[in-house]
Amino acid sequence: xxxxxxxxxxxxxxxxxxxxxxxxxxxxxxxxxxxxxxxxxxxxxxxxxxxxxxxxxxxxxxxxxxxxxxxxxxxxxxxxxxxxxxxxxxxxxxxxxxxxxxxxxxxxxxxxxxxxxxxxxxxxxxxxxxxxxxx
Length: 135
What we know:
- By secondary structure, the protein is mainly alpha-helical.
- It has helices at residues 2-57, 63-130.
- The chain has a single domain, classed as Helix Hairpins (Orthogonal Bundle).
- It has 2 helices and no strands.
């Protein structure tokens, strides 16, 4: 009986540790989602600025050549933004997978704790029925 009581305490500690891991994983998911949203906003802003540069390229004056050069440079930056978005999406997916794994681990630990508690209750009931509460 003492062994099972100790096991319940150990299981309770393990459940708490798994809860902390799950909470940390959920925070990482939220941060990764926010980072993905920031990357998408950066791409949207980049595309909006591109429209202004395109308008300047079609003016037909001597500065149009400079604007076309600016457009090429601007378009070259798009690859960097796309790469950053790709990395953010990958990090978000990894964080979601980590959170799902942490959730499953917590559920396993909770089942183990429930099993240990059930055994302790059953042992206490058997001792009470036997009339020997000290074992």
